[in-house]
Design a protein that fits this description.
Elements: E1 6-11, H1 12-20, H2 36-52, E2 56-60, H3 68-72, H4 85-100, E3 105-106, H5 113-123, E4 129-133, E5 147-151, E6 156-158, H6 160-167, H7 171-181, H8 196-206, H9 209-214, H10 222-242, H11 264-274, H12 277-281, E7 299-302, H13 306-316, E8 321-328, E9 338-344, E10 349-354, H14 362-368, H15 370-373, E11 378-381, H16 384-393, E12 403-404, H17 405-412, H18 420-428, H19 435-439, H20 453-480, H21 484-504, E13 506-508, H22 510-535, H23 544-554, E14 562-563, E15 566-567, H24 571-577, H25 582-601, H26 604-607, E16 614-615, E17 618-620, E18 630-632, H27 644-647, E19 653-654, E20 659-666, H28 669-678, H29 681-689, H30 693-702, H31 711-725, H32 730-737, H33 741-754, H34 756-772, E21 774-776, E22 782-784, H35 793-829, E23 835-840, E24 843-849, H36 853-865, E25 876-881, H37 884-887
Parallel strand pairs: 1-2, 1-4, 2-3, 4-5, 7-10, 8-11, 11-12
Antiparallel strand pairs: 5-6, 8-9, 9-10, 13-16, 13-19, 14-15, 17-18, 20-24, 20-25, 21-22, 23-24
Helix pairs in contact: 1-2, 2-4, 7-8, 7-10, 13-14, 16-21, 17-20, 18-20, 21-35, 22-25, 24-25, 28-34, 28-35, 30-31, 30-33, 32-33, 33-34, 34-35, 35-36
């Protein structure tokens, strides 16, 4: 055997589980077979083979059924959820991939993969360097100078130093620490009362478990001392359970693990069957690795003078499209300072044009991008909205983008990989550095302005090349999942609308905020006095510990809910306790008002741009899994409107001189969408007649005429109407309305009896979602819900609620986005100077010249009410005023 021989042992079970839960879109083969885990697993395996270049290799899986550890301890791994069905379906496929790569698959009865790997490590010749691919902490006990643990997905390696940094002890003592700490995932008990840090300190002091137990009486910490004295047998059992078996009878000799040549024909057929297009295209002599695996050496040329930039323009004019990635100072849409832009045509090469700092100016960059700016060459990016803002601020607006990698990734899977780095890893099997990798993290991060041009050039070039490489596979996946139309017709053009809104911003009257700040400070001081009077002492109101003492020890109020740190004082608890004592209600009032002050009244002035006198929120296009927009800096979506104190904040949002604010709000849009999908004749008829839907529901449920409906009945009907959308239970409704659970259940049952179409819609939506593994909105927006098949009842029921809610709220998101595009188009047709400035839930806010107020209001209402084809009419309420509150 060669002196430099290398061996790689892959914990196949661990790798496949991690691949299954990897943050990337849920994938399926052309025949519907789930394939995400297999694809991530295959890319990880191919990458490992390329980088480690092992002479020997084996992929090891856990034995099926119980192992010898179950005989030692009946509760071993008890309580674990059953393996997800979609993962079970991919296990045999992973075996097929491994065998096609000519790698041994080891699965030994009665033992786990860890034990087989431990035996392989022990049996490997002493001069063989070994890499164990796994994230299982138990395997860290194997680490030595010749054995390292490798996280094949996150590219982390653990040698002896890394293990000691992780556990506080060297690898040979990890087992003793694990014996004390236990393992919840495997239901290994450990010694309750001793945490990982404490365990490491004890083992450092006493050397090993048995010596520690023998000297338990010497331990100063009472809790640890008593725990060891009482639970020594648990510690010994835990060590036996965590100890890896090193004498497993292997089905193969070590020499039989020598790598062979992959079966390319079998791989080709397998990739075709599973729909692994990129792997299929790049199938080559190394057995199926992508042609440019994990490429970090993108050739990046920095253009430092105008002549070089002009030369690039001639090349760009010949490109089919240009991938652009900018680096700037951050901040709002009008505050970002552009430092440079990288351009790439493909995955291998990029050019970086620095702006300022002794390099070319922006006009030189514009020269290089003239074919793009003129609309002759399409452009793509990872954040097209930001680029549109940056270029528009320089007076050179970009045309509509051709592709946005970030939006595509979010559309494919809202809970999946976000950004270039994770998408490149998941889709291309390629490592791309993040901004944190370049600049550092948190407060110690180096600002972009202080980084050398060479560093920015390499990073942006790498990003641009990855963007260029991602367009084709992401486009294919969007097409394959039926998302291309939503992407091309709604989400992509919406980036221009949002960029315009962010740049324009909304004017804020600081004098109004200053007045509110003074007024609310006085109110808080008054509430504070009331609190101290009710508590009969002064204390730190913001301290949960001190509040717990006052409520539960001094006032002897009943404990509603316990937490790890004591007794809960959250909002729900205080609302229940408020019926028994005035203090909880006062605390609630204090918290709500102080949060209002800190989040908005005092936080808004620093966000006002000195040059524009406006705040410029950043809108996140897919800020929620349902597709709804969100906003930050400031979060205009969450300004409270149900209290007088909250709604008054809207008085500070004002128009420019000579303008008014117009608010256009969809009325009861989610209930109208429910009527559309449920096709319930009673709901549809009520909306067609223009009835008060809550009064009509109350009339149906309590069998009285609409005129006889009481205010209490209408309130209950409203709670049920909206609760249905959110999967409200009888318990939740009872709490919300302050009624008995049985009465709440009766109300819900009567509702479904009167509106059977709604019951049918809910049942059919959940059934279809379980069949497809996902739900869709009216425009085809897709949300994967893997927990619909979970054996965990709580997870499954939550997923069922999400299924119904996503169809309704997601369609509402479709509608408001479609409305934003249509309103923008109508304003352009009218040659109006009105501007969209805010979007909040189902409401659009515009800044409108006073002379155009009537015309624009009518046009906006007309456009929004014609938004999407529903079975019931849409109703839009439009108001105009001198501030946002007045308009709404």
């Amino acid at each position: 055997m060669a002196e430099t021989s290398r061996a790689v042992f892959v914990d196949g079970t661990n790798a496949l589980y991690r691949a299954f839960f990897a943050p990337m879109p849920d994938l399926r083969a052309p025949d519907g077979t789930p394939t995400k885990a297999v694809l991530v697993f295959t890319n990880m395996l191919l990458k490992t083979l390329r980088e480690e270049a092992p002479d020997y290799c084996a992929v090891v899986f856990d034995a099926r059924g119980k192992t010898f550890r179950h005989k030692l301890y009946d509760d071993y791994k008890a309580g674990r959820d059953a393996q997800p069905e979609d993962l079970s379906a991919q296990m045999p496929l992973a075996h097929e991939v491994v065998r096609a790569l000519a790698l041994p698959v080891l699965e030994v009865p009665d033992v786990e993969a860890d034990d087989v790997i431990a035996t392989l490590v022990r049996s490997a010749p002493k001069d063989t360097q070994v890499s164990v691919v796994s994230t299982d902490r138990d395997l860290m006990q194997l680490v030595s100078e010749r054995v390292q643990l490798l996280d094949g997905i996150r590219d982390r390696r653990y040698g002896p130093e890394e293990v000691e940094a992780r556990f506080g002890v060297p690898p040979e003592q990890v087992l003793d620490v694990r014996a004390l700490v236990g393992d919840k995932s495997d239901n290994i008990p450990g010694v309750k009362g001793i945490g990982e840090k404490g365990a490491a300190q004890l083992i450092q002091t006493y050397g090993d478990l048995e010596n520690l137990i023998a000297h338990a009486d010497e331990i100063k910490a009472k809790r640890a001392r008593e725990a060891l004295q009482n639970l020594a047998d648990d510690a010994r059992l835990s060590k036996r359970l965590a100890t890896l078996k090193e004498d497993v009878a292997l089905p193969e000799s070590f020499e039989a693990l020598r790598r062979g040549d992959p079966d390319r024909d079998t791989l080709r057929a397998l990739y075709e069957r599973l729909g692994f297009v990129r792997l299929l295209e790049s199938l080559d002599a190394d057995g199926g690795a992508p042609a440019a695996p994990d490429k970090t050496d993108v050739a990046v040329e920095t253009l430092r003078d105008a002549k070089a930039v002009a030369g690039l323009a001639k090349q760009v004019a010949q490109w089919p499209q240009a991938a652009l990635v900018a680096v700037d100072s951050g901040g709002s849409a009008v505050a970002g300072e552009l430092f440079g832009v990288a351009l790439a045509k493909d995955a291998d090469q990029a050019w970086y044009v620095p702006v300022g700092g002794g390099g070319p100016d922006f006009e030189s960059l514009a020269t290089a991008l003239e074919p793009v700016l003129a609309g002759k060459v399409g452009w793509v990016s990872n954040d097209t909205k930001r680029l549109q803002c940056l270029f528009a601020e320089q007076g050179r607006p970009l045309p509509a983008p051709h592709f946005d990698v970030g939006i595509a990734g979010q559309l494919l899977d809202a809970s999946g990989p976000q950004g270039v780095e994770p998408l490149a890893k998941a889709v291309l099997g390629r490592t791309v550095r993040s901004w944190e990798d370049l600049a550092g993290r948190g407060a110690k991060a180096t600002p972009a302005a202080e980084l050398p041009i060479e560093a920015l050039s390499g990073w942006t070039g790498e990003q641009a090349a990855a963007v260029a490489a991602l367009v084709a596979p992401l486009s294919e996946r969007l097409e394959g999942l039926g998302l291309w139309s939503l992407f091309e017709d709604v989400e992509l053009p919406l980036t221009r609308v949002l960029a315009g809104m962010e740049r324009h911003g909304v004017r804020v009257d600081e004098a109004v905020l200053a007045q509110l700040s003074t007024e609310y400070a006085g109110q808080l001081a008054s509430i504070e006095k009331d609190i101290y009077a009710s508590a009969e002492e002064e204390f730190l109101i913001s301290s949960p510990k001190q509040l717990q003492r006052i409520l539960f020890e001094k006032l002897k109020l009943p404990v509603i809910k316990k937490t790890k740190t004591g007794y809960s004082t959250d909002e729900g608890v205080l609302e229940q306790l408020a019926e028994q004592h005035p203090l909880p209600a006062q605390i609630l009032a204090y918290r709500r008002l102080s949060k209002l002050v800190s989040t908005y009244v005092d936080a808004l002035p620093p966000l006002i741009d000195a040059g524009t006198g406006r705040v410029h929120p950043t809108f996140h296009q897919l800020g929620a899994a349902t597709g709804r927009l969100s906003a930050t800096q400031p979060n205009v979506q969450n300004i409270p409107i149900r209290t007088e104190e909250g709604v008054r904040i809207r008085e500070a949002f004002v128009p420019a001189e000579g303008c008014v604010l117009a608010s256009a709000d969809y009325s009861q849009v989610e209930l109208r969408i429910l009527a559309h999908f449920s096709k319930d004749p009673s709901l549809i008829a009520a909306f067609e007649r223009g009835d008060d839907i809550h009064r009509q529901t109350a009339s149906e449920v309590w069998e009285v005429t609409p005129e006889e409906v009481s205010s209490d009945q209408r309130a209950r009907a409203k709670a049920v109407n909206f609760g249905i959308i959110y999967g409200l239970s009888s318990f939740g409704l009872a709490n919300q309305l302050g009624i008995a659970n049985a009465e709440a259940q009766e109300t819900i049952d009567t509702y479904f009896a009167r509106y059977p179409g709604v019951r049918r819609f809910i049942d059919e939506t959940i059934d279809q979602a379980k069949h497809d593994g996902a739900v869709r909105t009216l425009l085809g927006r897709r949300r994967a819900l893997p927990d619909l098949g979970s054996r965990n009842r709580a997870l499954r029921q939550a997923a069922e609620r999400m299924a119904v809610n996503t169809v309704i709220q997601g369609t509402a998101a479709d509608l408001i986005k479609r409305a934003m595009l249509d309103v923008e188009a109508r304003l352009f047709e009218m040659d109006s100077r009105a501007r969209l400035i805010l979007q909040v839930h189902d409401e659009l806010v515009l800044e409108v010249p006073e002379a155009e107020a009537d015309g624009v209001s009518g046009a906006v209402r007309e456009v929004m009410e014609a938004g999407l084809p529903f079975a019931v009419p849409l109703l839009v309420e439009v108001g105009v005023g001198s501030n946002w509150r007045e308009a709404h």
